[in-house]
Amino acid sequence: MTIREAIRRAAARLSESEHLTASAQMDATLLLLHTLGITRAQLFADADRALSPGELAGYDQSIRRRLTHEPIQYITGEQEFYGLALRVTPAVLIPRPETEHLVESVLAQVGHIEPLKIADIGTGSGAIAIALASQLPRTRLVATDISPAALEIAVANAARLNVGRRIRFVESDLFETIHAEGPFDAVVSNPPYVPLSDGKDMHPEVREFEPAAALFAPGNGLDVYRRLIPEAESALKPGGLLALEIGYGQRDALAGLLSGWREVSFVPDLQQIPRVALARRR
Question: Which of 2, 74, 149, 160 is the most buried (most CB within 10 A)?
């Protein structure tokens, strides 16, 4: 079977799933690229090359995993974020393009001032802290997570991307174990904010595979913010920046929680949905 035929057959299998139909062709192509370890240009240049039995077996295994709705990123073990190739496993939330708006917003606010001390709360794969460190060469960061498994991934990502010496990863429930690290110039976080009631409506690849603790929060998705915002206020320098990713429909609630702060603003994503909340400590 040739590369072209294998992709066609795999895309047809994936299309049989109502949840995978829209991405079947792309998924089939990405998984063969991963299986063969080649570039897209090489794949199309060699489209009529016959696959070996071992290559076909490896590809079939990846397709069978995808048919269970396992995310592509967990199958390949990688996700790009802010131009950086990050390792991801089911221990961490898959970094989303929307979260790049959070990084960009922080850089727009403080990128002209260095050196800085920044805290990334709930770091997961380390995506936000690593992206900031890559753009702020004289800045030091403390990145926390409650999950030791997530921190293991984050540490490995930071080391591989040559920023590990400027990020200290700490197991902590929000600021619990890093109070002595402050005060910080900025606190950034993409906390769990999906209401528990929304779980039933999510795509199965998210609901069934990504870590629930990194996705869902009680209290209409606001409970973590209710803890995080006052803790961040205590941890920041006067005038320090708080930058939070927020969910759909949460703008007004966050504006209320930040009523005691100054320069409160919201940054929309590409769909014009408020995605980032920014505020300064008084």
Answer: 74
| Calpha distance 282→279 (Å, rounded) | 9
Say how far apart CA 282 and CA 277 lie, in whole Å. Answer: 16
Could you give the count of Cα atoms lying within 13 Å of 37 in the half-sphere of its Cβ?
Answer: 2
Query: Half-sphere exposure of residue 204, counting CA atoms within 13 Å on the CB side?
Result: 9
Confidence grade of residue 218 (pLDDT, cut at 50, 70, 90): very high
Interatomic CA distance for residues 33 and 14, integer angstroms? 16
Q: How does DSSP assign 186-219, residue by residue?
A: EEEE----EEGGGGGGS-HHHHTTS-HHHHEETT
Does the reported pTM lie above 0.85?
A: yes
Angle between the 127-135 and 100-110 helix axes, to the nearest 10 degrees?
Answer: 40
